[in-house]
Structure formats: C-alpha cells, structure tokens
C-alpha cells in the first residue's frame, strides 16, 4: 500500500498528527467503504485538507482528522451505493492482508472480517458511520454527533437501530483457531487433489458461495448453494486450463485465516469463509482484479 505521507518532509513526519493517526484514519475509511483503493483516496484527500488549514488553530487534531475522513467517506459511500446497484454479479468488499493479531493491533476487532463488512453494506451511509465510530472505535455519542453535525439524541437512536440491524444479521461462527487451521489445510488439499467427496465433507449442508468477478473475469454471477454445487464449482475452477499453475496458500485476510490463489508471485483471488459447527458455511471468493490491491503486498498491515 502506498504511503501518502511519503511526501511529508522526514523531519515533520514524526510529529505530524496525520501520520500519527494514519492507521485509525485508514481503518475508519476502509470500514466505511469496504474498499482499500477508496480508503487510500480518502486519506489522500484528508491529507490535502489537513495541510491546507491553519493547524495551530485546530485544538484537537485527532478529532478533526476523524471528522474529515468520516465525512469524505460518507460522500464517497453515497455515490458508491448507486454504482453498486449496476454492479455485475455479487459485490464483495476488497480483501486486505493483515497480521495475525491485526484485530488487537489496529483496534478493529471482529468488524474487520469480510463477513462483517458484508453486513455493514446493508446499513445506510449514516448508520454505517455511526456504527463504525461507536462500536469499532468507541467514540461517545456526543463525539459522533460533533463529527456528523447531528444532535447527540439522534446519534443515539441511529446507533441503537444500526446495532440491532447488525446483530440480527451477524453470521454465527466458530472461534477455535486450531480447528480453522485444520479445516483450511484440508480444504486446500481437497481442492489441489480434486477430491470431491473430501471437499463436500468440509461444507455445511446450507453452504453458500459468493463470487465477485465484477464482470471483468469469469465468475459465477449468482450465489451457489449446497455442498455438491459449491464443491463441483470449486474443483471445476481448479481444473480449467487457465487455472494451470494455481496454488492455494493460507493467509490472514481481514483478521482471519483465509485462502489466497497464487500464480507465480501474483495473488489472483482471496477466499474468506465462516466455519460453523466444524464445517464451512459461507464462502466469499474475490477475484475482481480491480479489488485485489490489498492482498498483493506481503505483510501489509496498514488497516
């Protein structure tokens, strides 16, 4: 990921509030938009705004920057929602490589997961902003009201509505890291070996797969349901001539152990999933080449 602050003189970078809070700002924008590229653009715009004001007159730089990023993201999200209505096939958020302890390191908790970002897409822009600021970053209702120019009572109502909405749609999943590691290894082995029965045994009866190719690369344009359908589709992809040389590797994506598809040094897709009662219940396969920037740089933990 490109660091926008590289244009800041080295002597100033160490004390520049924008640099100091960059991870928080990126996390806010990314959770608001579900897009690495858009989050980077928001940070660029926020950096320009920050360096265009009289910084000595800003009493609380961190709050000023969060407010700036939030409102820029709100504007971007409002226009993005219209674009997504004409998106080809299922829309999935952009995956992001994270460190194994990314949730603790970046204060993003489980809301950085792909599953949660998908749920956040069902909120309206204001609800999403309030939820992210309150539930992820712990801002008070009064602070959020200041960011959004809304009365505290209104923010409290929006927060309650958004939280209830998210809780009712938040996917259930197992949190056993060892079990997830074992299932991930078995899944990759079954795919590499073309073992249909082994693959089906790993999938829950109600498993669903969403595939985001954005109309750019070949991908299923509708969700696939059921172990047989999902397993045969996965093995069919692996068996295609265009897939020759693909290897599956485990990686921590959006704070969870996941799978990425690799040819040579290029990462051509990210597969994230929920594990419930020891089986894979939901799979989200991101292969849109325009949405893979966040998984290309090994060890990138900018979120």
Automatic annotation (TrEMBL):
CDD domains membership: Sigma70_r4
RNA polymerase sigma factor 70 region 4 type domain boundaries: 116-165
InterPro entries: ECF_Sigma-70_Domain, NTF2-like_dom_sf, RNA_pol_sigma-70_dom, RNA_pol_sigma-70_ECF, RNA_pol_sigma70_r2, RNA_pol_sigma70_r4_t2, RNA_pol_sigma_r2, RNA_pol_sigma_r3/r4-like
Entry annotated with the keyword Transcription regulation: yes
Classification via SUPFAM superfamilies: NTF2-like, Sigma2 domain of RNA polymerase sigma factors, Sigma3 and sigma4 domains of RNA polymerase sigma factors
Keywords: DNA-binding, Sigma factor, Transcription, Transcription regulation
Source taxon at top rank: Bacteria
Domain RNA polymerase sigma-70 region: start-end pairs: 20-81
Family classification: Belongs to the sigma-70 factor family. ECF subfamily.
Oligomer and partners: Interacts transiently with the RNA polymerase catalytic core formed by RpoA, RpoB, RpoC and RpoZ (2 alpha, 1 beta, 1 beta' and 1 omega subunit) to form the RNA polymerase holoenzyme that can initiate transcription.
Annotated protein name in UniProt: RNA polymerase sigma-70 factor
Organism this protein belongs to: Nocardia acididurans
